[in-house]
TrEMBL record:
It holds the Pfam family Hexapep. CDD domains: LbH_SAT. Belongs to the transferase hexapeptide repeat family. Pathway: Amino-acid biosynthesis; L-cysteine biosynthesis; L-cysteine from L-serine: step 1/2. This is Serine acetyltransferase. Residues 14-118 form the Serine acetyltransferase N-terminal domain. PANTHER family: SERINE ACETYLTRANSFERASE. GO terms for molecular function: serine O-acetyltransferase activity. PROSITE patterns: HEXAPEP_TRANSFERASES. Keywords: Acyltransferase, Amino-acid biosynthesis, Repeat, Transferase. Its EC number is 2.3.1.30. It catalyses: L-serine + acetyl-CoA = O-acetyl-L-serine + CoA. It comes from Lacimonas salitolerans.
Length: 269
């Protein structure tokens, strides 16, 4: 058993750590044994566990858990990058969220992570032409998690969505790698135009709680958007914007604001 774990850790360190943490969690809280065994320890790979958890959350009277799980399994088989993105997302949550103490937590308990993985499958469905099914995944993700991400939106890896209540990301939005956002963020349009109408968020951006970023605008890499801001114009890289409407109030204050999660506007800005 020890040799098997060692090999797994070398091949897939994220999944190996999740399994070790799951065993520890069962020992500490036996009443969660059924949940943890069915969600983690019963599965041989993270891909299988993700498919199981997504299906369990999105199932309804309109579509069975088994059918949703088969769709997720197909997505992870044909697009292995989806599970690699999930691994990066787990690491991002662990690194940036002070309330996250185990890799196990996002998989079991954090709706921001879970909603993001459901979106990733929906995006795969959209890209492969199964758009009605993609809309179904979007609908159930919104109903279940309160997170509404259009399946055509493009989202990078290493994403952390903290608390994740009332997140809205529109059809033509683009979110780069290593982006962090808090609850009630909207990446939306400004009217009924049907062309490219949503924001483009650069790598390493931090978006504060309640911020609204509207229109086909560009948010430069490693910028900060203060909580409650309404952003209507392009934002230069490595800067901080705040207000309604938002204005540049200074530099970002650090090289990677999405990693440090520092949202305080210094008096010197």
């Amino acid at each position: 058993m020890a040799e098997t774990r060692k090999k797994l850790a070398e091949i897939d360190p994220v999944w190996s750590r999740i399994q070790t943490e799951a065993q520890q969690a069962v020992a500490e809280e036996p009443l969660l044994g059924g949940l943890i065994h069915s969600s983690v320890l019963h599965h041989g790979t993270l891909e299988c566990a993700l498919a199981y958890r997504t299906a369990l959350k999105l199932t309804s009277g309109e579509m069975s858990e088994q059918l949703i799980r088969e769709i997720c399994d197909m997505a992870y088989t044909h697009a292995p990058e989806l599970a690699q993105d999930a691994r990066a997302d787990i690491a991002a949550v662990y690194d940036r969220d002070p309330a996250c103490h185990r890799f196990l937590q996002p998989l079991l308990f954090f709706k921001g992570f879970q909603a993001l993985q459901a979106y990733r499958v929906a995006n795969w469905l959209w890209q492969t032409g199964r758009r009605d099914m993609a809309y179904f995944f979007q609908m159930r993700t919104s109903e279940t998690f309160g997170v509404d991400i259009h399946p055509a939106a493009r989202i990078g890896r290493g994403i952390m969505i903290d608390h994740a209540h009332s997140i809205v990301i529109g059809e033509t939005a683009v979110v780069g790698d290593n982006v962090s956002m808090l609850h009630s963020v909207t990446l939306g349009g400004t009217g009924k135009e049907e062309e490219d109408r949503h924001p483009k968020i650069g790598n390493g951006v931090l978006i504060g709680a309640g911020a609204k970023v509207l229109g086909n605008i560009r948010i430069g890499e490693c910028s900060r958007i203060a909580a409650g801001s309404v952003v209507l114009h392009d934002v230069p890289p490595k800067s901080t914007v705040a207000g309604v409407p938002a204005k540049v109030v200074g530099e970002a204050g650090c090289a990677q604001p999405s990693l440090t999660m520092d949202q305080i506007l210094k008096s010197s800005l």
